[in-house]
Structure formats: structure tokens, C-alpha cells
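To close the section, here is one more complete example, presented without commentary so you can practise reading it yourself. The ligand is phosphoenolpyruvate.
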Amino acid sequence: MVIVLKPGTSKENVERVENMVRARGLDVHTIIGEDLTIIGCIGDTVRIDPRLFEVDKSVEKVMHVQEPYKLVNRAFHPEDTIVDVSGVKVGGSHLALIAGPCSVESEEQVIGIAKAAKAAGANMLRGGAFKPRTSPYSFQGLGLEGLEMLCRAKEETGLPIVTELMSPEYLDIFDEKVDLIQIGARNMQNFDLLKQLGKTKRPILLKRGLNATYEEWLMSAEYIMASGNPNVILCERGVRTFESFTRNTLDLQAIPVVRKKSHLPIIVDPSHAGGKWWLVDPMAKAAIAAGADGLMIEVHNNPECALCDGGQSLKPEKYEKLLKDVFQIAEILGKTA
Ligand code: PEP
Ligand code: MN
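Output:
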């Protein structure tokens, strides 16, 4: 349930209505926007009669929110949320351009790619240190050593770093060192992990699960917000379909749907969607044209020899060429990096 207050409601009256809500055993989440003040009521609102609040002198209207996600819901927060990743803004008119290798392989590799990606226009560096691999015999990532290499690349380039957290065991160290903590598709519904993320205020990049519905995905974001971390960015990375030619099917409709349902920024990862490097360019442009708040793209200086996902990685020159087009499309939509 959402209570919209009359324009110009005083602070005292906002607090008074908040207390009325609390007295019904609910939590409040108040958003004071430029035009509207909205009190989001969180908890079991099914048996609460909205007329209790509708008659109040400060209340404009009361709306029942049908969806099970509340904090994530645009009804609770009509304006776009802008997430600040160590100074790089994401959402609204700000684009996130995240690039880097699937996995950190060596310090030399990640620093070289970071420099090339930055020169092309990227504003964040990705690189997996802990890798969720389908086979236990595949390269599992360099772990904490890989994280240190990413930190060195950050020192060299100033780019904030994005890397995947698979276990709460490393949350403290990620909190200290990582600018944007990625939760991968396979962990989207690892609810114990999601609940732990409230222990940090570091922004979280929540990838869509392999076959997650929009509602399941937004409920996972709700877990993170409800645990106390409001800094969530969503990432569409393709879903499983009957098609086997591509790795996954990029769901471009997710962008307008999520933007309608939620105030959180949404970016797109075309690399893991198509699984083929030549699909990255057209799908990245389509994603920006459809309103995405950014892109996460795998870039590798030597894809033929990459330890992971070489076939879907762009060489730095191709990435640079792509970003030139992306900047033009984004400009039409009033967005800049
Ligand atoms: C990744 O970004 O490296 C990755 C493993 O992605 P996903 O979780 O989307 O498969
Ligand atoms: Mn990858």
C-alpha cells in the first residue's frame, strides 16, 4: 500500500501519518520527491482498510500495490534511482559502460585490457576472480589473487571495479575492495546470499537468473533492498529458450518492462546473451535504443587464448568502434556516460 500525501505537507504531518501506519504494525518507507511525498507501507496490508488513511487531512490518495515487490516498485519511488558507483553515476541520464575480461588471468592481462577499455570510453572495469563454472574441471578463477590484480588495474586506470561474489565468506573483503558487487545469474535466487548484502552499502549488480521471470528477478532485488542495501542495478543477460544456436536469448523487452515496474537502473550484458562476439555489437546498440542504462561487455586482448568466454569477447578495437555508435544512440535519448 502506498499513501500519497498532499503537496506541501509539513514535516510534522508526514511524521504523524507515518506513525498512524506504524500503529497498524507496518513499516514505513517514505520518499520525499520534488513534487510528491509518498509513504510506502511495508508488511501485510491485505486486511488494512485504506479509508483509515483516506480521511486524513494530509492524504491525497491511497493505492494498493498489487505486486509483491514494494521497495523496488516504481509506485513507491516514481523517479528513476541513480546509483553512485564510487563516483560513476548509473541510471537516469547516466550510462554505465562496463568492460573487461570474463576472468582475470594475470595482472598484465587485466591492466592492458583496462587501459584499452578506458581509452575506448568505458567507465568501469569488469573481471571475474571467482567464476561460477558449469564444470568443476574448468578454470575456476584466480580467487583473491585475481581480486588483487583487479585492484592494481584500478590503481593504474582509476576505473571502479566490478566482480562476482559467490559466497558470503568473502563479503567483508568485497565490501572493502570492490566498487560494484556482481551477483551472477546462477545465484539470483540464493536468498541467504542476497540477505547478507544488506551488510554492505556497496552497490550490487543483480543479474537475471537463467530462467527467471521479471517478478522473480524483482523479488530478488527486493531481498537486497529489504536487507538494507538500496543500491541495486539490474542486469539482463539473456534467458534460456528452445533456441540452441545462441547461448541464451536476449530479452530486450525486459528493459521497458523493468523500467515501467521499477525505479532501479537496468543494464544489459549482450556477451552472455548471444555467446558470440559478432552478436554483441548489434544487441548492444539495440539495448541502448530500448532504454538500457548501460552495458556490460566482455573485452579481451587475445580472445583466441582466453581462459573463459573467448568466443563472445570483443577485441578492444571492436569495442571502441561499438562505443562510438552507442554514444550517438544514447545522445538521441538524452543519455551520456
Ligand atoms: C559473468 O558476468 O561473468 C557471468 C558469469 O555472467 P552470468 O552470471 O550472467 O552467467
Ligand atoms: Mn563470461
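Once you have examined the C-alpha cells, check your reading against these statements. The chain has a mean pLDDT of 96. The pocket of manganese (II) ion (ligand 2) is lined by residues 102, 272, 298, 308-309 (CB under 6 Å).
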